Amino acid sequence: MKKIACIILALLLLASSTAFAASGDGEGVPVLPGGVSTGEEPSSSGALEITGEVAVPDAPAEMDEQQPVISVRVPDSGWVVVNPYRLEVVRDGIASNQQIVSPAMVLQNRSAVPVRVDAKATGTVPPGSEAELVPVAPPPDAAGKEVFLFLEFQGFWGNDPLWSGQFTDGANQLAVGSQGTAKEGIMTMEAGGAGALRVFGAAAEAPAEPWTAADTVNVSVVFTFAALD
Q1: pTM (two decimals)
Q2: Which is more confidently placed, 78 or 110?
Q3: Beta-carbon neighbour count of residue 104 at 10 Å?
């Protein structure tokens, strides 16, 4: 049995010291509507920067007793900030001046069996944005508003994962492409265990035209979960 889930990451752009004043309680944070529905529990938060839904096939009239049931909870909160000018971002216990700032987003395997995670990431540039999604980190003298994003996945059991934050196209990393990029087995979660993902990358520091708050990129991540023998 397979289960499919989708998360849409709506990236915020930190283009000036006054464009984004974030705090742990969410005051001053631009709010995007919606949440992630797992089909089990509706989201209770009204201030999320991740929106999405889970689409699950209808259960057959008679379930094969030998077929394991997959139950995975996807993140119902999270945020990503594009920070091309390396301003200081302080939010939810994270203080960083990296160009891409993101917390760990945790997936929980509620199944009685280990689960393999396949993922596909697709980036889109919304109307009004002059950002350019590129396949590699932009050079220091890039004239365009180039941004490179990738996801890093870590499976863990009771301990914090160790993030590399450097793109090597490893088995647990997935570059974000405009046509969609996918990998099978990007992460494995033990029965009753968990895994996590974070967004990393880089952006052009001094393009010919200055960055504005409208220069964003949206990312959708589609997961497929399959039971392991």
Answers
A1: 0.74
A2: 110
A3: 17
